[in-house]
Amino acid sequence: MENLSYYEILEVSQNADKATIKKAYRDMAKKYHPDKNAGDADAERRFKLCNEAYQCLSDDQQKSIYDRYGKEGLQGRSSRHSSAGFDNFGSIFEDMFSSFSGGNSRRRPNPADMEKYPLDMNVDMIISFNEAVFGCEKEVQYNYKTSCEECKGSGAKDGKLAPCQQCKGQGQVFIKQGFMTFSQTCPVCQGLGSAPAESCETCRGTGYKEIKETVTIKIPAGIDSDNRLRVSGKGNIGKRGTRGDLYVTFRVQKDKHFIRNGNDVYIEIPVFFTQAIMGATITIPSLTGELALKLDIGTKDKQHFTFKNEGIEDVHGHGKGDFIAQINLTYPTKLNDKQKELLKELQESFGIESKPHENVLDSAIEKMKSWFK
Question: What is the rounded distance in angstroms from the CA atom of residue 223 to the CA atom of residue 47?
Fold first, then answer.
């Protein structure tokens, strides 16, 4: 990457305008920023090269020299960058830090308003295939968090807080990368700038206690793996009494016979070769009972027969899927003398139709002979 031009590093054309160059730099800098690629030496190297490229291309004078003479023309000019270029450079990083931290990096949150845990919570539930297809009611047993009354959710004895030892009360820690210094939220106090002077004895410094609860939920027909169901007002409880929602994420067990694909259901039907030849009618199981499957004369192995709207009801109410029977032809593994004789008579009764291979093989043999003439 060091051998690429500044335009190639930022992935822009040489006639790109300032807005395009700035946008390209922002995207590349965010992608390779050290905060997002901790310990990645290659990302750090790419990040520095992006900085170098943007410093040049964002300055009209430097860009003009670079376009005419390349990097060699810029040697000795590193101390004479325009102040406008650096102002622009700094504003970009201010925006970047804001996006990394989720808001204004200079605004420290009030410890009294910060929750130690998310109010919404999730539990996983395993249900059977038929429960998912037809819907059901299930009990969910889980533990939710509620703010400790003794310390009012601070985790500190008597609610007393002291400056965080890691960030010295600033809420941020600073990392030096070359000639630049970057800030990030303090990992110890999570940006609060304070920590318990002494842990609360009731909650042992967690700021919350856990309570068991059981709720009954109605699972709609058609639910599938990774679908989520929201139970309003049954999540964790915050410092001010606000309660979040409970989300139930489902995993549906596989069935021995039925295979689900979206709202469609497949079943493999074993069919003896004589049934396939004659086009027999057989009875097969479905989700709602028995179905009559009329085979075509000469039904092929793996052939599909589709029953419309006999599949699974869409969980959002958009109709039903199909039920598909896939044929699995089976053949005898042993033949007695009588069976062999009967099959031989059957084959002969079809005449030339029973030997479709002969014309193909004869032409192939004649072609092969011509190769050696």
Answer: 45
**Dihedral in degrees, nearest 10, Cα atoms 88, 92, 94, 96:** 180
**pTM of the entire predicted model:** 0.59
- Retrieve residue 33's tokens: 């920023």
Q: Please, what are the domains in the chain?
A: 6-101 (1.10.287.110), 108-150+203-254 (2.60.260.20), 258-330 (2.60.260.20), 337-371 (no CATH)
Q: Number of helices and strands (H, E) in the chain?
A: 9, 15
Distance, in Å, from the CA atom of 367 to the CA atom of 371, rounded to the nearest integer, reads 7
Tell me what pLDDT residue 98 has. Answer: 47
Q: Are 32 and 44 in contact (CB under 8 A)?
A: yes
Report how far residue 151's alpha carbon sits from residue 203's, in angstroms, rounded to the nearest whole number.
8
- In three-state secondary structure terms, 215 is strand
Q: Report pLDDT digits (tens) over 146-193.
A: 999 888 888 888 778 888 888 887 878 887 776 677 778 888 777 777
Q: In which element (H, E) is residue 294 found?
A: strand 290-294
Q: Say yes or no to pLDDT of 77 above 80.
A: no
Q: Read off the tokens for 35.
A: 């905060």
Of 120, 373, 329, give the one whose Cα is nearest residue 242. 120
Helices (H), ranges, 156-230: none
Structure letter (DSSP) for residue 320: B
